[in-house]
Write a structure and sequence with these properties.
Blueprint lengths: L2 E3 L9 H10 L1 E7 L10 H12 L1 H7 L4 E6 L18 H5 L4 E8 L5 H17 L3 E4 L5 H15 L6 E4 L6 H7 L2 E5 L8 H11 L4 E4 L11 H11 L4 H16 L13 E8 L2 E8 L1
Parallel strand pairs: 1-2, 2-3, 3-4, 4-5, 5-6, 6-7, 7-8
Antiparallel strand pairs: 9-10
Helix pairs in contact: 8-9, 9-10
Organism: Amycolatopsis alba DSM 44262
GO molecular function: hydrolase activity, acting on ester bonds; metal ion binding
Family: Belongs to the metallo-dependent hydrolases superfamily.
Length: 287
């Protein structure tokens, strides 16, 4: 079981998490830019954060054998804060950086006029920089937010295969599947989606364009939920090849549209067969 976690906020996680993720088979990840749990008060706090994503966090992940990539954006929650709007003017220089594989997270939180404007402007940046887009669907009124998201994406002229609509559930999955966009699911201990519900969605809708992530952050979350979803798939009758498609090949195919993925093993790390809760995975050994 090799794993690419396509949405995880490692700047809020510990080095123990990196070690556990590598042991469970994680070899690459994408860290989307998001809010920090409290309001930012200046553009400088954003640029410091972006610099950490493309520099320090990439280095930190490499110490544990994991390739780190990121997405860059003004997130929906802070799109409503006028103190943050100036960050839109500095985004282009970050969207040109190595390791930046998409514009994101963009989309909706409260579906305000301000969020409409920021969403549309960042979709235009994705077109300008030839990057795919990671879209955050709102936690409240998710169905309406997903419909509105797909409308805005169509109006922007972005091909649906270059968009992943994330944080989906049973209510929104068919809508996104019918649109032709990629479908993202965040597997959480208490909220959003769990691994057993995910297996049923895969059984009903198939494996094409399905993306599973842990979205682990500073809240109650689990960076091993990708591996646990793989185990649940195997227990549910899916094959090793099915698991590899969902946990590795699908996220690789989506983010490879950026032309910036780096997936070769890091120097000093090898992979050997071990077990994760009774199923074969790659367990890393440092040379």
């Amino acid at each position: 079981m090799r794993i690419f976690d396509p949405h995880i906020h490692m700047s809020s996680r510990t080095t123990d998490d990196y070690e556990a993720m590598y042991a469970a088979g994680v070899r690459a990840l994408v860290e989307p830019a998001f809010w920090l749990g409290q309001p930012r008060t200046s553009v400088g706090s954003y640029t410091d954060y972006f610099d950490a994503l493309i520099g320090w966090e990439r280095f930190r992940a490499a110490q544990f054998g994991i390739r780190h990539h990121c997405t860059i954006a003004l997130n929906p929650k802070e799109a409503n804060d006028p103190r943050c709007r100036e960050v839109l003017d500095v985004l282009p220089r970050y969207l040109a950086k190595d390791g930046v594989v998409a514009v994101g997270e963009v989309g909706y939180d409260s579906m305000t006029k301000e969020e409409d404007e920021v969403f549309a402007r960042q979709l235009a940046m994705a077109l300008d920089h030839d990057l795919p887009v990671m879209v955050h669907t709102p936690h409240r009124d998710k169905l309406e937010g997903t419909k509105r998201t797909l409308d805005v994406v169509r109006e922007a002229g972005i091909a649906p295969e270059r968009v992943i609509v994330d944080h989906l559930n049973e209510v929104t999955v068919k809508l996104v599947k019918d649109s032709g966009a990629w479908m993202g699911f965040s597997i959480y201990p208490d909220t959003k989606m769990d691994e057993h519900r995910m297996v049923e969605i895969l059984r009903q809708y198939g494996l094409e364009k399905m993306i599973v992530n842990s979205a682990a952050d500073w809240g109650r979350s689990d960076p091993l939920k990708t591996a646990k979803t793989g185990k649940a798939m195997l227990d549910g009758g899916f094959t090793d090849a099915d698991v590899d498609k969902v946990l590795w090949q699908n996220p690789v195919d989506f983010y490879d549209q950026s032309g910036r993925l780096t997936l070769d093993p890091l120097p000093g790390f090898t992979g050997e067969a071990e077990t994760f809760e009774g199923n074969s995975v790659l367990r890393g050994a440092r040379k």
